Fold:
Amino acid sequence: MIIKDFNRQSIVSPEAVAAYVNALPRAHLRGLQTILYKPAHELRQLHIPIEQSCKGAFFPEFQSIIIFNLVDKSLAPHIIYHEIGHYVFHRVINSYVKKEWTTRIYSSSPPVSVYGGRNPVEDFAEAYAFYAQDPQLIAKNPVKQRFMRNKIFSM
Ligand SMILES: [Zn+2]
Structure:
């Protein structure tokens, strides 16, 4: 897996990005090709559609994540882990675990963030991002915290 072009921005060092990624279970990164930084205006020039409210995107066809807005240093790990959370949901966990999240766990308690309220997939990415930083950040959602601990971060 290649972490690329984070030296093109100054919000967070490439070393810090590598440290965030390396703190995750190895299984979560299996098959992931690239985590790339590319400014939003360059993506627009390439006609790659990006949503205004998004800071990054996972491109399943390339098994790659592009981060285009790190906002500030304190939010950078959340933004990176959120996109890796999408990768884990789409490519790493099996269909039973996926189904358990979407049918039972998602609706067991309120979304872990406003953004997570959009749908089960965003709520998973948000729960993943919080748990990866500190499991206590989703302590108010014990069912989701337990799911992250037992089904996702035990891999
Ligand atoms: Zn997302």
Remarks:
- The longest helix spans residues 76-92.
- The chain has six helices and four strands.
- The first strand starts at residue 2 and ends at 4.
